[in-house]
Design goal:
Mean pLDDT is 75; it is low at 118-124. With 124 residues, the protein is an all-alpha fold. The chain contains 5 helices and no strands. The chain has helices at residues 10-15, 19-36, 50-65, 73-87, 97-115.
């Protein structure tokens, strides 16, 4: 099924029909893909396959055509993630404070190391 086939019909594309149905289909696909992901702990980088990224771009493009000119990819992802958590059967516990502190230190080191001591930078 091509990218256009996964969205609404050409008539609906111009009239704004089935927008909620499109949202549900895309959010469902994001949920299914996340469930199929490895169960092993991995790094915390968000990775999107090229196919999924193209679908996101197509969806945002059609939202803009259908009267939502400021709709963004970030909005779509945020909406999908919130819906994912709403559908969970259980409450997800927070990470322990020690883990949060380690993450914060690790993030701080990465930021400092990428900007410190570089004399060949194009930005001064």
């Amino acid at each position: 099924m091509s990218g256009k086939d996964q969205f609404k019909s050409s008539k609906a594309r111009h009239t704004g029909q089935d927008t909620n149905e499109q949202n549900k289909e895309l959010i469902n696909e994001l949920r299914v893909r996340s469930e199929e992901a490895d169960q092993e702990p991995r790094n915390h980088t968000l990775r999107l396959t090229p196919v999924l990224l193209e679908k996101i771009k197509d969806y945002v493009y059609h939202q803009k055509l259908n009267g939502q000119p400021f709709y963004s990819q970030g909005e779509l992802v945020e909406q999908a993630v919130w819906e994912f958590f709403e559908r969970l059967d259980h409450v997800v516990p927070e990470r322990p404070d020690e883990v949060k502190k380690k993450e914060k230190r690790r993030t701080g080191r990465k930021k400092r190391s990428s900007t410190s001591g570089s004399t060949d930078s194009l930005f001064f």
